[in-house]
User: What shape does this take?
Amino acid sequence: MKRTTKRVASSEWVLQITALRARLGINQAELARRLKCSAMTISRWERGLLRPSSESLIQLGNLSNKKEAWFFWEMAGIQTAKMDEALARSSRPKLATQMLRVETIGADGQALRVDRKFSVIGIPLLKAVVGSHGTAGDKRSILRSIASSGIIGVPRVWCPNPAYTSLLRVTGRSMEPTIRNADMIAVDAYPTERHELYGHLVVVISEQHGLSVSRLRSYDGIEVLEAEDRAFEPVVLKKGRSGRIVGRVLWSISGIS
Assistant: This one.
């Protein structure tokens, strides 16, 4: 009987590895030598037949440039928020968070004094769609790897951690009335303590469903992802199977195109 090998659903990290090797100008054997593994292992990674171990992902990050490095390190489970605090000179690319002044022009043509509470910051709108609970979203491995389509200004007080906040579109209706189809949500990737997220809306990444938004709850130590619409079945969050929480939803906005 012919034996078949199941291909990993997500291919983003496959592309990242092949792109890294191409940028370095080395073959699979040389990459294997640097990572102290076999060329066959590299081949299986690049064909999507085997996911690199956490140790290998960290080593891949060490071989990468700044942008690529965080892709691999986050896949390995490194918490970027805590890493930034630990490193005096973080390699993490910073998002646009420069303070902008909202000025009002008076009758004499001079700018009026504006209170600090009117300051706004630029938050990137990512080129990806988040599925509501039970609806598949775009297949991504980490938020950091997603390009942005532009910057949207929002009040500074809306974002406790601006450098870790991004905006995404939502598709599906299972989270209504809290989040509606086509709403835009702000996702804060800074919170890292799981118990602090209980009861909140979170964005989850899984190889099967891609990006999705659900409400995280804990019942007797069992973590569950739930829809606002109870017609949708909850999902027990199991490590390495049901997905990885990548951020908390801060707020949503409707009607912005």
User: Anything to note?
Assistant: The domain at 12-86 is CATH 1.10.260.40 (434 Repressor (Amino-terminal Domain)). The longest strand covers residues 120-132. Residues 1-10, 85-118 have pLDDT under 50 and may be disordered.
